[in-house]
Amino acid sequence: GQSGVLGALQGLQTGSSSASLFGIEDTGQRILILFDNSASVWSKASKAGVTTATFIRELSALIDGLNANTQFALVPFSRSIGTFRDYMIAGGARNKRAAKLWITQKVRTQQLTTQLPHDIDGVQGALTVAFQMEPDVIFMISDGDFQRNRPKQGDVPWNELDRTLRTLSREYGIEPRIHFIGFQVEEEASEKMGKITRRHKGQFRML
Q1: What distance separates the 2 farthest-apart alpha carbons in the chain?
Q2: How far apart are CA 51 and CA 4, in angstroms?
Q3: Contact 65, 88 (CB under 8 A)
């Protein structure tokens, strides 16, 4: 009993919190949710039984569960990239209320903006923005169909995405655990994202 209490107190002092999103659980001090809010993702999420209201509840529940010393961030992307804030914020009551209100109002908006620098849009730019906040845990939500900014440029090659992650890890000197939650992910994308999450000590779940 004493051990459990001391462990909980230590978690509060260090800013570490348990977090759960669509059944994937982890513990971290700097937690970032990176989610693809393109039309294809919402369509596939709906087919998988995940409504917008369910999505909002999942994100809000994760935020509610953070202690006041844990920092968190929200990074939505489609072909453009946005943030709730361009920095990590502490999990205090006021910040939680603001984040949950933003999720409710903006979770599906395509008018995404951020002042954080990124040379490319889409998933690579979103990861570039995410790494600048130096998370130790990233929950990534998508259908795995990553497009370049212009449709004619086609899909983002998987080896290029992998290279982007390696470059960012070296540049920022961090190795965040990357978890992936996928909606109706195609077979090849499932295989590739599974390898990426395992390499980054994360979990993969497909809905």
Answers
A1: 61
A2: 37
A3: no
Query: Do 100 and 55 contact (CB within 8 A), yes or no?
Result: no
Identify the burial level of 158 via C-beta atoms within 10 angstroms of its C-beta, where 0-12 means exposed, 13-18 middle and 19 or more buried. Answer: middle
**Single-letter residue type at 168:** L
Whether pTM exceeds 0.85: yes
pLDDT tens, per residue, the chain with 207 residues? 444 444 444 444 568 999 999 999 999 999 999 999 999 999 999 999 999 999 999 999 999 999 999 999 999 998 889 999 999 999 999 999 999 999 999 999 988 899 999 998 899 999 999 999 999 999 999 999 998 765 556 789 999 999 999 999 999 999 999 999 999 999 999 999 999 999 999 999 999
**Residue 85 Cα distances to 40, 71, 73, 98, angstroms:** 25, 12, 7, 11
Contacts of residue 61, defined as CB under 8 A and 6 or more positions apart, other chains included, come to 20
Alpha-carbon torsion (64, 65, 70, 74), positive or negative: negative
Say what angle helices 158-172 and 122-132 make with each other, to 10 degrees: 20
- Residues 6+ positions from 194 with CB-CB distance below 8 Å: 180, 204
Inter-residue contact 182 to 191 (CB < 8 Å):
no
C-alpha distances (whole Å) from 145 to each of 81, 122, 130, 168, 183 are: 16, 11, 19, 21, 10
